[in-house]
């Protein structure tokens, strides 16, 4: 079977000379590469979503800045962070194209929030002010994993992870089940019938040569799970629907 090509999204930033640049933490690509996938960056910058979905086997939506609240039908709260409207539009188009193509999508942190908003869910724009919870700066916390979810075969019912976010899921999008929680915070979701799943925490910081977090399990198996999805492995959707 051929090596799956996986599009890995990246952010935009302005260099000191005023030119636009792409940025991406290397461990995202290393996680895909180490699991047998071939990571690609979306460098076109144009209307390439449909072509990307046709050529690639999967889409990884990576971490980054807050999403424009209008995309989940809210006004911008003063505590909402800096936005990247160009990235919002690009990832929205890519997600739409990959979903229509029936190809696997996996989201990490911001990626989970993009997925939830795209499918009609909402977000808390600031966890500390809304729920009194602080999940930024690498907070270490337990994960309560749902039996039958995509995470359960990898880590069992309980695990430990990190958080680098100040926003999270409020209303879960229709068609999705919660796969893991940390207290009140939704830490993972998956679609009941489509190959779309996401985690709120940062598995790329818990594996590889530049692992940030000492706590918790090696998350290489999670990247391997996604690469297998991109190679055509089917989830047991009946088990998911029955157990969640």
Helical segment count:
8
Radius of gyration: 17 Å
Number of domains: 1
Based on helices, strands and strand pairing, what is the structural class? Answer: alpha/beta
Name the CATH superfamily classification. Answer: Class I glutamine amidotransferase (GATase) domain
Number of strands: 13
What is the average per-residue confidence, as pLDDT, rounded to a whole number?
90
C-alpha termini separation: 32 Å
| Succession of helices and strands | EEEHEHEHEHEHEHEEEEEHH
Just name the CATH architecture: 3-Layer(aba) Sandwich
Strand arrangement across the biggest beta sheet: 4-1-5-6-13-12-11-8-9
- CATH top level assignment: Alpha Beta
- What does the main sheet amount to? 9 strands, mixed
General description of the model:
The protein has helices at residues 26-34, 49-55, 85-101, 110-118, 127-131, 152-155, 220-230, 237-243; strands at 5-8, 11-14, 20-23, 38-40, 58-61, 105-108, 123-124, 139-145, 158-163, 168-169, 176-182, 185-191, 196-199. With 244 residues, it is of the alpha/beta class. It has a single domain (5-243), classed as Rossmann fold (3-Layer(aba) Sandwich). The chain has a nine-stranded mixed sheet with strand order 4-1-5-6-13-12-11-8-9, with helices on both faces. Helix 2 (49-55) crosses helix 3 (85-101). The two termini are 32 Å apart. The model is unreliable at 237-244 (pLDDT under 50).
Descriptive labels:
244 residues, alpha/beta, Rossmann fold, 9-stranded mixed β-sheet, two-stranded antiparallel sheet, 28% helix, disordered C terminus
């Amino acid at each position: 079977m051929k090596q799956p090509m996986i599009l890995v999204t990246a952010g935009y930033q302005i260099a000191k000379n005023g030119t636009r640049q792409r940025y991406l933490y290397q461990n995202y690509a290393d996680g895909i590469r180490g699991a047998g996938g071939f990571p690609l960056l979306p460098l076109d910058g144009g209307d390439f979503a449909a072509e990307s979905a046709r050529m690639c086997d999967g889409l990884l939506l990576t971490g980054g800045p807050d999403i424009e609240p209008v995309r989940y039908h809210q006004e911008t709260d003063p505590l909402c962070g800096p936005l990247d409207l160009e990235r919002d539009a690009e990832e929205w188009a890519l997600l739409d194209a990959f979903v229509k193509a029936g190809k696997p999508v996996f989201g990490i942190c911001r990626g989970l929030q993009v997925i939830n908003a795209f499918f009609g869910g909402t977000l808390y724009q600031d966890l500390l002010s809304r729920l009194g919870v602080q999940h930024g700066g690498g907070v270490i916390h337990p994960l309560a994993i749902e039996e039958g979810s995509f995470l359960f075969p990898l880590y069992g019912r309980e695990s430990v992870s990190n958080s680098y976010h100040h926003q999270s899921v409020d209303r879960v999008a229709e068609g999705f089940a919660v796969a893991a929680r940390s207290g009140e915070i939704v830490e993972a979701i998956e679609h009941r019938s489509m190959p779309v799943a996401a985690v709120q925490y940062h598995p790329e910081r818990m594996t590889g040569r530049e692992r940030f977090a000492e706590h918790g399990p090696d998350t290489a198996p999670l990247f391997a799970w996604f690469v297998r999805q991109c190679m055509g492995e089917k989830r047991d959707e009946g088990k998911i629907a029955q157990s969640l």
